[in-house]
Design brief:
The radius of gyration is 23 Å and the shape is globular. It is of the alpha/beta class and 438 residues long. The protein folds into 2 domains: 148 residues, Rossmann fold (3-Layer(aba) Sandwich); 264 residues, pyruvate-formate lyase- activating enzyme (Alpha-Beta Horseshoe), CATH 3.80.30. The protein has 15 helices and 17 strands.
């Protein structure tokens, strides 16, 4: 692989084009924000585009203005096929001066397969430090093989992975770009100790929680407050909303969590809105207690919380390494509703090892909990790279299972994109088995 420079001294900057897709902008916010912390920022012109059509229009408009254009694309496994089609179109139309960098959960889990799709580099794992070094190398046309955390194919098409990078200190980087004014939710914790077998989070971000400090969080809350004024909304990104401040992520530190909420509330005032335990984060059922719910009621503005349930079968919960019981789920729902909060429950259908008895247990749980007032968020199992369930087979959801889900949806008791996920999951399972995208 070559990096093309044309030596025009009037072209001093590099273009950094970010595919700011609505499903991926949180991770791209972190990347763009990191670049703002380094002197390299002055050498980059940023372009944020939200649609595929905008990518091609923008590239057409800027292509002759820069020695080098870098396109950053982050995607998950469910976006695998559309991402492949996009990069193939780009490679056909723009043969030189365009470098396409992939990052995110799927490229990290399957870097070699991602490179075979047509990407020039894959940022493996956390990207804040890696993207700064990689952009510096590209701008200066220097050797990039010693940068930790990247994968690429050399001139002989041999796969090169430069090695895993150490996890970052979240306080060293912003959760979103401030200079480019692309705001969003604030990531407060990375890493999850529970190691659920269907989830990539612990395998990519580690099993020891790392928390952004309260001072750092409030610094970015102030940025939002200065921009939005009284209409400021604060949302958090975390694998487990009640675990902030916990050393191990399992034993809660509610004093630390409350201190965070108090300080955030001081910044945004009474008119600002603070959300805890809702999208883009959720809570674990065994962490739903009167004390945790009291924090939501006292400091937050959401009238609901989201709990990861996944299955109504204890056997399946154990196979998934969930670390909680069926009783924990019922207790969490009952307690939440008694505290006058609504509740959304994430279920995954078609999990590995699931038989008819397990399905019936899940159906009965969904019926029972929805009759209590809970709302079901329906998902289909998707095998994800670099997880214990990566190579598990995927089959169509049984008809009677579908019938019950559709019935709940028709009554307004369930929602979700499970049908599309089911269809894509079968294609993904075939790709993982064959490594063929066509």
């Amino acid at each position: 692989m070559e990096i093309y420079y044309f030596g025009n001294s009037s072209l001093k900057k590099i273009a950094f084009l970010i595919y700011y897709h609505k499903q991926n902008f949180y991770s791209l916010n972190a990347i763009a924000g990191a670049l703002e912390t380094d002197a390299i920022f002055e050498s980059i012109d940023f372009y944020f585009v939200q649609t595929i059509n905008e990518i091609f229009l923008t590239l057409k408009g800027i292509f002759e203005k820069y020695d080098q254009i870098v396109l950053a694309i982050s995607f998950s496994t469910i976006q695998l096929f559309e991402s492949y089609e996009l990069v193939q179109r780009l490679k056909k139309k723009f043969t030189k001066r365009l470098l396409i960098i992939a990052g995110g959960s799927h490229p990290t889990g399957d870097p070699y397969g991602t490179l075979k799709m047509g990407f020039d580099f894959v940022v493996v794992g956390e990207g804040e430090e890696t993207i700064i070094e990689l952009m510096r190398i590209i701008i200066n046309n220097e050797e990039y093989s010693m940068i930790k955390g990247i994968a690429y194919l050399n001139e002989n098409k041999e796969y090169i992975f430069t090695g895993k990078r150490d996890f970052i200190n979240l306080d060293n980087y912003p959760p979103f770009p401030v200079k480019n004014i692309r705001f969003g939710a604030i990531e407060i914790t990375r890493g999850c100790p529970y190691v659920c077998y269907f989830c990539q989070t612990p395998y990519i971000l580690g099993t020891t929680p790392r928390h952004r400090s309260i001072d750092a969080i409030c610094r970015y809350v102030k940025e939002l407050k200065n921009y939005y004024g009284d209409n400021t909304d604060i949302r958090f990104i975390t694998p487990n909303a009640f675990s902030y401040g916990s050393i191990d992520g399992m034993n809660l530190n509610l004093k630390r969590l409350e201190t965070l909420l108090i300080n955030v509330r001081k910044v945004i005032g009474k008119k600002g809105r603070l959300f805890l335990g809702t999208f883009p984060s959720e809570v674990r059922p065994e962490h739903v207690t009167n004390d945790t719910l009291a924090l939501v009621l006292k400091y937050a503005d959401n009238d609901n919380i989201t709990i990861g349930v996944q299955s109504g079968s204890q056997k399946i919960l154990n196979l998934c390494h969930r670390g909680h019981t069926v009783e924990d789920i019922y207790h969490a729902v009952d307690l939440t509703l008694k505290n006058n909060l609504k509740i959304n429950l994430d279920f995954i259908f078609g999990l590995p090892g699931e038989n008819e008895e397990d399905m019936n247990l899940t159906i009965e749980m969904m019926k029972s909990l929805s009759s209590m007032g809970a709302r079901i968020h329906a998902h289909s199992f998707i095998p994800l790279p670099q997880t214990p369930f990566e190579k598990k087979s995927v089959s169509r959801i049984k008809d009677h299972y579908k019938k019950e889900i559709i019935s709940l949806i028709s009554k307004g008791n369930a929602f979700g994109d499970w049908k599309r996920q089911e269809s894509v999951a079968i294609k993904i399972a075939n790709y993982i088995k064959t490594k063929k995208l066509k």
